[in-house]
Specification:
Elements (H helix, E strand, L loop, with lengths): L1 H20 L2 E9 L10 E4 L5 E3 L5 E6 L5 E5 L6 E4 L5 E3 L2 E3 L19 H11 L1 H4 L6 E15 L3 H4 L4 H10 L10 E16 L4 E13 L5 H8 L12 E4 L2 E4 L6 H4 E12 L2 E10 L8 E7 L5 E8 L8 E10 L9 E10 L8 E15 L12 E3 L8 H7 L6 H4 L1 H9 L2 H15 L2 E3 L2 E3 L6 E4 L3 E10 L7 E10 L4 E13 L4 E13 L13 H6 L10 E16 L2 E14 L5 E2 L6 E2 L2 E12 L3 E4 L8 E4 L6 E9 L10 E13 L5 E10 L10 E2 L22 E2 L1 E10 L17 E12 L2 H10 L12 E11 L3 E8 L16 E7 L4
Parallel strand pairs: 1-7, 1-8, 11-21
Antiparallel strand pairs: 1-4, 2-3, 2-5, 5-6, 9-10, 9-20, 10-11, 12-13, 14-15, 15-16, 16-17, 17-18, 18-19, 19-20, 22-23, 23-25, 24-25, 25-26, 26-27, 27-28, 28-29, 29-30, 30-33, 31-32, 33-36, 34-35, 36-37, 37-38, 38-41, 39-40, 41-42, 42-43, 43-44, 44-45
């Protein structure tokens, strides 16, 4: 009997050991076949059983089996399902890459009469609970944030693959497991990691980020401190509780916006999905119209408080968006009880498409982990005065710090990117591409301590100078961190005259950016360009086009121009500038004016004036940099207005000035979010000159600037048709994005976008200034009557992704004939090139 019991006991022990020996642990990571990015919340199931799990936010999963099974199957919305066999190993790592569905067929559902989508009731509750769940409604919050950003070249063109040095680096990248798949090589171009403390206060609305440590390496990126500010947490925030999210310069409707039912179709996939121990509603969503600026994806809504816990949102290639193939945003909230939930993890992927077969695509990846979250903290007065603070030890090299503060999800391959980028920098073709890119972006060719340019102004042709050739330069940060020197010389073959100029600028402080400078030039100028109009930005492109064509009709003159300035950021977003200019107008056209207090008629004008400018740009953040000689400013909220005020004081007999006068002007510009209507853009300007001045110093309203089309200008107004010493104008442009073309069959395939414009101007002129024009000058320049000047337009943009066509109608002053008796154009067609995503 004892022997039998002992035998049974041994069999039982052996059986138990046998079962334990067959226990199998399977783990791995599920990624996107095209991008290599993790796929969160994918289903991992054992074929033929009810055993399964989901990948976590980082695409990781783990399964335990009591006995060997045949295979595991991975499935996820938007991807092709895939199965793989299970081997005999007790511990196995099975990583799989899923292929995105290229053409997902629209589902056709037939619902009974009176059917109410069960997801709608849940969405309505989500909206009702926004006041409790929206983290932006907290009085304050703070957290420690880890941010990692990487830029990769992808889908490399054949021309690049054949360049010397590329194959060696690509083989190394493949060996590290950085390539997304066997067909698509990925070449790292830039990577950064930043650890910072982030603070937010609701009233008054304020943000601050203390950057504690940063690490950066990139092709063409030299300033680690500057990149740390750009890649920190401040500019990586997405709040889906808002009605719209800004991405790629567009406004995308949130799937939990107040007008959710106007944008999306929903399906309740599961009422009781368990995620991290939380019971959630799982709801998929997609745009009602494929071309709309909206997301496709899945949301997980907590059942107990209707808060957003997880979201996968993708902007698909079908959306009316240029050059961007896909944008994917994944977010997981921290889920703490008793308060609104803040994002605990974010992953953002931007996939830039190839422009042509011989070009490469671009992958931009951002990964954020937030921890140590605290809410409703009080802060001392002045705490938010500085929006970004960089620790002195921020760029200290310390591998142990990063090993301690990196999330566990960062792989060894991702850590090795820093070294691989150094190899990419040594490729000769890459060095050439950096030089070309710098030339295209900045307009200058860097050679040692100086940069030659701007290259757009190297040559021009006009009816005054003939062929104009120009050579210019400026120093860069390799010459000096604070002093900037520049100059140019030009020659015209038609007038056989040399023009020249030079400038010296000095950066006094970078913290509250303060700079001063002096410049001088002897060159041609145009009376038509003396306007105080805020619509034109004086940049290299503007300067290049003003030198082409028939410029004599815009009243050309020679000037000797001396200028001094001092500019300072008084506080965040507010800049003050004081300048002095002394310039002469030596006309190449008939011009006369009576000098004040004397009977002398002069044909040349000398101006001596001080100008005081105040500019308020809320939402603009000045970025600190020790390696750039120009201020870098970034607007975190593009819809905040920009307000500029100028006061100009002209002084007679001060350094030979001919007139004493006062000028006041104001400009307000703003971008407006218009929901389904797209974006609006307005510019309001007003000015007043309470003095008697020669007509070049009046506001000569810009019109018919054919050398540089601006849809906000007065396009059907002639040169020198109107002038004012008091005026107000409003220019408005409405970009309808895809409305209504997205909904029109066939036309929707072209990705055209409707645009509309309106320009209104009203002004007046004192009798004295009107008499000054008529008595001493043979020019048909007049003031406005009782009606404003008005023109409206409509058009189509995004034709072949670059072209825009506007049809413009002039509504008033239709009988306002010129000196030759010609009536103004009532209708015009303008064609322009533009770059818009």
């Amino acid at each position: 009997m004892c022997l039998r019991l002992m035998f049974c006991w041994l069999v039982l022990i052996a059986g138990t050991q046998l079962v334990n020996a067959q226990k199998i642990v399977i783990k791995g990571k599920i990624t996107d076949l095209n991008t290599g990015e993790a796929i969160p919340f994918a289903t991992v199931a054992i074929k033929g059983t009810g055993i399964g799990t989901h990948t976590d936010f980082d695409g990781l999963y783990r399964l335990e089996l009591q006995a060997k099974k045949d295979s595991i199957t991975i499935s996820c919305i938007g991807y092709v399902q895939k199965s793989v066999a299970i081997s005999n190993g007790i511990e196995q790592t099975i990583n799989m890459a899923l292929r995105p569905m290229s053409n997902a067929l629209d589902e056709v559902r037939i619902s009974p009469k009176g059917y109410i989508n069960p997801a709608w009731k849940i969405l309505k509750e989500v909206i009702l609970h926004k006041a409790v769940n929206d983290p932006q409604l907290l009085n304050s919050y703070q957290y420690e944030s880890y941010n990692r950003i990487e830029f990769d070249a992808s889908h490399l063109g054949e021309n690049l693959l054949n360049k010397k040095g590329f194959n060696k680096v690509l083989r190394k990248a493949d060996s590290l497991g950085l390539s997304a798949n066997e067909r698509t090589s990925i070449l790292p171009l830039f990577v950064s990691e930043t650890v910072s403390d982030v603070y937010y206060q609701r009233n008054p609305s304020s943000k601050r980020e203390n950057i504690k440590r940063t690490r950066t390496n990139g092709v063409g990126f030299e300033d680690g401190t500057l990149m740390a500010q750009l890649t920190g947490s401040t500019f990586q925030r997405y709040n889906f509780y808002g009605n719209f999210l800004s991405a790629a310069g567009k406004n995308f409707a949130s799937p939990i916006s107040d007008s959710w039912n106007s944008w999306y179709d929903y399906e309740l996939k599961n009422r009781n999905t368990v995620v991290d121990g939380k019971i959630c509603y799982e709801i998929s969503f997609k745009p009602k119209r494929a071309k709309d600026l909206a997301f496709t994806g899945t949301i997980w809504i907590a059942k107990d408080n209707y808060a957003l816990y997880l979201i996968k949102a993708t902007i698909e290639p079908s959306v009316n968006l240029n050059f961007i193939h896909r944008i994917a945003i994944q977010q997981q909230m921290d889920g703490a009880s008793g308060r609104a939930w803040l994002p605990a993890k974010n992953r953002i992927l931007v996939e830039v498409a190839q422009v042509s077969e011989n070009t490469s695509g671009l992958l931009a990846k951002a990964y954020t982990v937030n921890k140590n979250i605290a809410v409703n903290t009080s802060y001392a007065d002045g705490f938010f005065k500085e929006r970004i603070v960089i620790a002195d030890s921020a760029e200290k090299k310390d591998d142990q710090f990063w090993d301690k503060n990196r999330p566990d999800s960062i792989t060894n391959a991702e850590k090795s990117v820093y070294g691989l980028i150094n190899d990419v920098k040594d490729i000769p073709a890459v060095k050439n591409y950096i030089t070309i890119a710098d030339l295209l972006i900045n307009g200058y060719y860097k050679t040692g301590k100086i940069s030659l340019g701007p290259f757009l102004q190297t040559y021009s042709y006009n009816n005054v100078e003939g062929n104009r050739f120009r050579l210019g330069f400026r120093t860069n940060s390799d010459f000096d961190k604070k002093w900037v020197l520049g100059g140019y010389i030009a020659y015209g073959t038609g007038d056989n005259d040399f023009k020249y100029g030079g400038n010296v600028d000095y950066i006094i402080s970078r913290k509250n950016w303060t700079e001063a400078g002096i410049s001088f030039k002897h060159d041609l100028n145009q009376v038509a360009l003396l306007s105080d109009n805020y619509l034109y930005q004086r940049n290299n492109l503007f300067g290049a086009f003003t030198g082409f064509g028939s410029i004599s009709k815009s009243k050309v003159f020679f000037e000797n121009h001396l200028a001094l300035y001092l500019r300072r950021d008084i506080f965040s977003g507010f800049t003050e500038k004081i300048s002095y200019a002394n310039w002469s107008l030596n006309p190449l056209f008939p011009f006369s004016f009576r000098e004040p207090k004397v009977n002398n008629i002069s044909h040349e004008l000398i101006v001596s004036e001080f100008q005081f400018e105040s500019r308020w740009s809320p939402g603009v953040q000045a970025l600190l940099s020790e390696n750039t000689t120009r201020q870098v400013r970034l607007k975190s909220n593009v819809t905040d207005p920009v307000i500029t005020f100028r006061y100009t004081l002209g002084l007679r007999n001060f350094l030979a000035g001919d007139n004493t006068y006062h000028k006041f002007s104001l400009n307000i510009t703003q971008i407006l979010k218009m929901g389904i209507l797209g974006r609006g853009n307005y510019s309001f300007s007003a000015g007043y000159i309470p003095s008697s001045v020669p007509y070049p110093l009046l506001e000569n309203h810009l019109g018919n600037q054919t050398f540089l089309y601006n849809p906000n200008a007065f396009n059907l107004m002639r040169f020198f048709e109107f002038a004012s010493d008091r005026y107000a104008s409003l220019s408005y442009t409405q970009h309808f994005e895809g409305l209504p073309f997205n909904s029109i069959p066939l036309i929707s395939n072209f990705n055209w976008r409707l645009v509309a414009t309106a320009n209104i101007l009203y002004g007046g002129m004192s009798a004295t200034n009107q008499n000054n024009i008529s008595l001493y000058n043979n020019i048909n320049l007049r003031s406005f009557g009782s009606a404003p000047y008005a023109e409206v337009g409509y058009g189509v943009e995004n034709i072949f992704r670059f072209l825009r066509v506007d049809f413009i109608h002039r509504l008033t002053y239709l009988d306002n004939k010129d000196s030759f008796g010609n009536a103004p154009k009532r209708f015009g067609i303008k064609i322009s090139a533009q770059f818009r995503l």
